[in-house]
Amino acid sequence: MTLRPFHLAFPVHDLDAARAFYGGVLGCGEGRSSDSWIDFDLFGHQIVAHLDPSARAVAVENAVDGHHVPVPHFGVVLRMEDWETLAERVRAAGVRFGIEPHVRFKGQAGEQATMFFLDPSGNALEFKAFADDAMIFATELKKVAA
C-alpha cells in the first residue's frame, strides 16, 4: 500500500496566531482558508486549524520513558535530518519545549528521536524520527548476524 497523506482538523482560539506558528515557525505551506479555518501542509499532510475562540487544551499526561507525554497530541514521523532541522528551527523561534529533543527507548525496540511543544492554542505536537524506520512499529529488536 502506498502511504497517503492524513487529514486532521483541530481547534485554535486565534487564526492569526495559528498562521504565524504553523506557517512562520514550522514552515507549513498554507492552502485554502476562510474566516473560520486555514489548511496547512504539514510535511505533506493536510491539517486544518478551525477557529473556536473558546478552545482550551486538555491537560492530561501519560508517563513514557521517564517523561510526561501530553494527550492528545499529533505530529509527523520525519527523516532524522528533517527532525534535526525542525528542532533547531523551533528552538531558534523561542518556542518552549514541553519535552526537549532527545532520543528515547535507547537500545530498545522503537528507539526514536522525539520532541514535544505546544502551539499558541495549547495543542500538543510531537515530532519524531527513527534512525531505522523498521523500528517504527517494532516490538522487539532484531538480532543481526555477525
UniProtKB/TrEMBL annotation:
InterPro entries: Glyas_Bleomycin-R_OHBP_Dase, Glyas_Fos-R_dOase_dom, VOC_core
Domain (VOC): residue spans on this chain: 4-130
Family annotation (Gene3D superfamilies): 2,3-Dihydroxybiphenyl 1,2-Dioxygenase, domain 1 (3.10.180.10)
SUPFAM superfamilies reported in the protein's UniProt record: Glyoxalase/Bleomycin resistance protein/Dihydroxybiphenyl dioxygenase
Alphabetized CDD domains for the sequence: VOC_like
PROSITE patterns assigned: VOC
Protein name, entry field: Glyoxalase
Naturally occurring in which organism (per UniProt): Sphingomonas lenta
Lineage, opening ranks: Bacteria, Pseudomonadati, Pseudomonadota, Alphaproteobacteria, Sphingomonadales
